[in-house]
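It is worth pausing here to work through a concrete case rather than discussing structure prediction in the abstract. The textbook approach is simple: state the sequence, then state the predicted structure, then interpret. We follow exactly that order.
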Amino acid sequence: MHIVQPGMEIDVLKENGKIAAENYRLMKSRGIKSVDFMGSIGAGKTALIIKLAEKLKARGVRVCAIAGDVTGADDYGRFSRAGLEAVNCNTGHECHLDANLVRKTLSKMDLDAYDVIFIENVGNLVCPADFPLGTDYRVVVVSTTEGDDMVRKHHDIFLHSDIAILNKIDIADAVDVNPEVILEDYKRLTGGNKKMITCSVKKETGLDEILSALKL
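Step two, the predicted structure:
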């Protein structure tokens, strides 16, 4: 049984916050805008990052992706095959990236070569919520294929995110999901102060709205 001593969890989060602030200052000093994409496996984070990067690169923006996974290099490979410069970042055992892992990854990169860094977090809707990485924006991506209860089940990650995206809107009918239920749950949770962006990466809809929300 793993026993957490009183105060230990708070210290871990406090240290992560300190390193996240350092990451933020480092990237800002190089003129880099950064985004942390969180979401379940299969939500479409990788494909979304590729499409957003393509649009930015067409405007001359220099983009790099950090592919976060527990093990392997599958997402890194997808980024590379799509022509997106990328760096692989494995957590080993942890179910999320943390600020220290990102700091180590940034130390290996030529930060002067990029204007935007997209970070794809490990695929789940629980662990990443408590560990900011030092990015300008935290984005949570869910899809219609995950059902209409994602917001009700995972309050924390939506409350800890600056932007929420509902992907695969084009197949909502096929998976028997009413997007309005998800959108209303999000509106209720956030007090109506935020709008969840709907998109279809496959149909390339909603991408410009996402870039606008990210001020890119």
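Step three, interpretation. The chain has a mean pLDDT of 94. The beta strands are 33-39, 63-69, 85-90, 116-120, 137-143, 163-167, 197-198.
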